[in-house]
# Entry
Amino acid sequence: MLWIRFENRGREMDNEWKPKSLPFLGELHMIGLKVHKSEAEAVRRKLLSMRALSRRFKSLRVGDYVVFPLEREVKGLGEIIHASFQERKRTPPEIEGKFDIIGDIALISRAENEQEIAKELMKRKNIRVVAIRAGHREGEFRKMKIRLLAGENRLETIHRENKCVFKVNIGECFFDPRLSYERREVAKEVKENERVLDMFAGVGPFSIVIGKLSSPREIISVEKNQVAFSYLKHNIKLNKLDEKITPILGDSRDVVPVLPGKFHRIIMNLPERSKEFLPIAEEKLADGGVIYLYSIGESPEDVLNDIHMRVLGVRRVKSYSPKRYIFRVKLTR
# Structure
């Protein structure tokens, strides 16, 4: 077994602890991040965004916990420990970062070598279907054209994240696994006995994660897409949240104004059009409440340009297209 000694290189810009470059001898004893398995996927994506996860080594399963190999030490995500990690079989460069995993379906971006990529992905034990995005998201319900490449003939799957379970058909409903960490972060801000409104609930990812990870008094989940609404109701039961979440089928433009009372947290995850609904949301916001508005722009200034409420913060969530991003804007009165 080879031990790595860490040194502080003393760089003024980042001042991070980094391992020395050492030859690989089969197994390395290095720093890792220990988290509960229910939080593993969200933390993994966060580590990737921070460029702190070592892709060279396999994660460890220790009972109900997962230990991620780290390139450098991070704070606030879990327990830092030392552990031995085995080198993983390298992901071929031609498919690195070009696919999402939703349940047991690998969804890849358009590529010239799509059959080679599908063949490589089907070797993984956790993947039963490989599909490809055949176009951009279109229409009011953000549906995407998807074509099957390999595996079973289906687009329905069971996806797990943040102690929650979601049944979803990726050809009929919008679902983004890359928002797993974002959903957990929003859920952590919800306080006990607060009322929550999810204006564009989809199959329920925000509503259900909030219901599982926090203690709101009530969650109202509004969804216009009949297919997504059916999955929303199913997922509420699947996660045993019937007494906490109330699903409503309809357009938020019509539904929200007639809802009784005010809400402490309002989720507006419809980046392409959320600003159109902001006046309706503001009318339903309780004193001291917070709106989480997701919008698309090139910069925070671009997103905030036509917003007149008080801004509590802006966070860049993910890329949307070249030079454009999805931002989360926290607003209050």
The chain has three domains: 2-86, 99-154, 178-332.
